[in-house]
Amino acid sequence: xxxxxxxxxxxxxxxxxxxxxxxxxxxxxxxxxxxxxxxxxxxxxxxxxxxxxxxxxxxxxxxxxxxxxxxxxxxxxxxxxxxxxxxxxxxxxxxxxxxxxxxxxxxxxxxxxxxxxxxxxxxxxxxxxxxxxxxxxxxxxxxxxxxxxxxxxxxxxxxxxxxxxxxxxxxxxxxxxxxxxxxxxxxxxxxxxxxxxxxxxxxxxxxxxxxxxxxxxxxxxxxxxxxxxxxxxxxxxxxxxxxxxxxxxxxxxxxxxxxxxxxxxxxxxxxxxxxxxxxxxxxxxxxxxxxxxxxxxxxxxxxxxxxxxxxxxxxxxxxxxxxxxxxxxxxxxxxxxxxxxxxxxxxxxxxxxxxxxxxxxxxxxxxxxxxxxxxxxxxxxxxxxxxxxxxxxxxxxxxxxxxxxxxxxxxxxxxxxxxxxxxxxxxxxxxxxxxxxxxxxxxxxxxxxxxxxxxxxxxxxxxxxxxxxxxxxxxxxxxxxxxxxxxxxxxxxxxxxxxxxxxxxxxxxxxxxxxxxxxxxxxxxxxxxxxxxxxxxxxxxxxxxxxxxxxxxxxxxxxxxxxxxxxxxxxxxxxxxxxxxxxxxxxxxxxxxxxxxxxxxxxxxxxxxxxxxxxxxxxxxxxxxxxxxxxxxxxxxxxxxxxxxxxxxxxxxxxxxxxxxxxxxxxxxxxxxxxxxxxxxxxxxxxxxxxxxxxxxxxxxxxxxxxxxxxxxxxxxxxxxxxxxxxxxxxxxxxxxxxxxxxxxxxxxxxxxxxxxxxxxxxxxxxxxxxxxxxxxxxxxxxxxxxxxxxxxxxxxxxxxxxxxx
Length: 806
Ligand SMILES: Nc1nc2c(c(=O)[nH]1)N[C@H]1C(S)=C(S)[C@@H](COP(=O)(O)OP(=O)(O)OC[C@H]3O[C@@H](n4cnc5c(=O)[nH]c(N)nc54)[C@H](O)[C@@H]3O)O[C@H]1N2
Ligand SMILES: Nc1nc2c(c(=O)[nH]1)N[C@H]1C(S)=C(S)[C@@H](COP(=O)(O)OP(=O)(O)OC[C@H]3O[C@@H](n4cnc5c(=O)[nH]c(N)nc54)[C@H](O)[C@@H]3O)O[C@H]1N2
Ligand code: SF4
Ligand SMILES: [Mo]
Prior knowledge:
Blueprint lengths: L4 H9 L3 H18 L5 H5 L4 E6 L9 E7 L2 E6 L22 H5 L9 E3 L10 E3 L2 H19 L4 E2 L13 H7 L6 E3 L5 H11 L17 E5 L3 H4 L6 H11 L3 E6 L12 E4 L5 H14 L5 H7 E2 L17 H6 L10 H8 L3 H13 L3 E5 L9 H14 L34 E3 L3 H7 L5 H4 L13 E5 L11 H9 L6 E6 L11 E4 L8 E6 L2 E7 L12 H11 L3 H5 L4 H15 L6 H7 L1 E5 L7 H5 L13 E2 L3 H6 L39 E7 L12 H6 L3 E4 L1 H4 L9 E6 L2 E9 L7 E6 L14 E2 L24 E7 L1
Parallel strand pairs: 6-14, 7-13, 8-9, 8-12, 9-10, 11-20, 14-15, 15-16, 21-25, 22-24, 24-26
Antiparallel strand pairs: 1-2, 2-3, 4-5, 4-16, 17-18, 18-19, 21-27, 22-25, 23-24, 23-27
């Protein structure tokens, strides 16, 4: 373990900081003045204070922010930089977005006062008037009491929301648990499908991938649907690991993706373009070639796996042609042989290319297989993710140096305790993606039709929500026009309390709005990392401006109205909690320095050794059995069949002719995918996470919008017949609505697919519904609220559309 903190600490203590900061500041001014902000004058004067803080948005970076403060205002934003940084001692440097925080924090659009919806206006119209804190808290608390009395605590809900990460970022859950609780959710919008399927295959423990640094020992790297350069930005996160690994590995890297993503650039990687939603078909065809040519690792498959062939099938399923080999060779299920010729039209990859890749896979070792979360955020995502994980098993490339188990790469982080949420007296839980269903028709939702857990069915619909730091009511949820209809109806959800820093679209559905502080305007602590782990300890950059308060204070005020303030605070301020929680963590991790030192250094970094996934299992599968029912890798899962017995399925949830969900990693054509486009909507529409924003965060900052415009990536083969030229304004349409954005005519996307980044701010007319045009270009105007069949997750990359010149 390398401790890089000493030199930096010494550096700060010796007061060398200011000289160096002037240099760093100069850099920041130059970048800022590109936008013509006129900030240079403010920066030229010496600052009065430098504080540490962290980015708290849902981006793995959670990078360091070094705030230069003058006259109690942030004069400029710097980050974790020091002259002694080297390629081997990286720093938690903020990306362009993080470095624009001053613009967000001081934006005229920032929420400054409590507000309530203007009487007589509908939710979604966005008309608000200023009220006092007293009135705001009174309203929110009295409505909560009313709903709990009328409908019970199961009618209260805290929707999925990712705008704030810190050790004390869940105060509202803690408060609600003190007043009877709330309806739980499970899943995330990030990983619903892969998180659900991985335990079926690898068990629920020790099932993670290898660290990216393990790719240094590989000879061949297959990366399915991941772009660390775009989705893992920041100086000390997976993008750093990716660049580092690429410099060191001798491996050939394949990027298997519908888009030539930014991680390909300037590197030795080769793009293997694939149609979205079809990775499982590619894996089946690769498997076909490996089996046909006797190149599978039979010893591995027979020792470590269940369900590969007849011999390894669970007893109850033997003699039924239900193995993965039967599926691949055409002796079971759909009885279609999964030859490269079969896969070619589905995947868009020529048969001879599939054969060549199979040969390369068979003859090169070690092979490192990794996937991002794009392939799983789809209608068939559980099976796509499963198939990608099955590939390394077919060739025995699991648990050895230079391999991974086909899941996402591992990340390291020091461990910090969080503000205890207490115990929720309500046990029922819904998939987070189905909250609009729970508002609309909660009591119709059951375990068998909607994945309700810890109850057979919901007793009530959702009647009260606290939406804290999230844009998932509309913008980041699916089918914005449908979400609007459900949320605007006050007879369904009776009250929505919204807490944010700006009026994102979801906030326009609030009945009462509360103005929050950023984490860098608070004391705050966060732990994160990848190959390196780090902790950032922040203090407030400025005093609270206008009438903004911390979420902790807001929750305490609500608790007061219910007579549980003392139980909520336990007599502590947020700062005192952070400190106490840190001290607790330190008891378990003796290497952590005292809190004062952490505050002073701002960023504490730690390097971790490479992780090779499932190494112990490989070494001794009996002593280190997996937590699957068989203790082995399950390529066929009897448990999945049992867990889903009697589930109500919809058309397209499973293979044609099957009445259960597939218990193995087959290719299921997507409901709205390459094989199911229509005459009206002949193109596939696939989303991705954009470098210009984190989801919708920063989506309103003009300078960032200008350098990261909203574009529909379209192949020249699809653009030309439609008379569309690069830069044209186009309308992308399907049954759920229309979005307006620029055309990016480029061979960087496969023909037949249009790619649109997710997270743009919806900008339409609430009264126009799906006949209106969303000029913001938010892809969720076009996505469906139908969940994926097994995890009930958000299949937001699965869509079809037509594109026309506007
Ligand atoms: N800049 C930026 N960084 C982010 C975020 C952001 O919004 N912006 N969001 C953060 C969050 S919360 C998360 S969960 C992660 C998300 O991280 P990911 O889920 O990994 O990101 P995506 O962009 O959705 O998907 C990764 C890639 O998969 C590709 N892809 C889509 N469908 C398929 C498919 O069927 N097969 C294959 N092979 N590839 C496919 C997409 O084109 C995309 O380039 O990123 C985090 N980082
Ligand atoms: N079509 C499509 N939709 C998707 C995805 C996709 O791939 N495709 N990805 C999904 C994924 S992976 C995720 S994680 C979700 C993310 O969805 P959200 O969790 O809604 O993420 P953001 O859009 O970043 O919204 C975060 C909100 O927090 C606010 N915020 C920031 N800082 C603070 C603060 O200090 N205090 C308070 N109170 N608020 C703050 C921001 O202003 C913003 O409104 O989106 C999902 N939606
Ligand atoms: S958006 Fe991500 S990469 Fe950028 S500063 Fe924040 S945490 Fe770091
Ligand atoms: Mo996410």
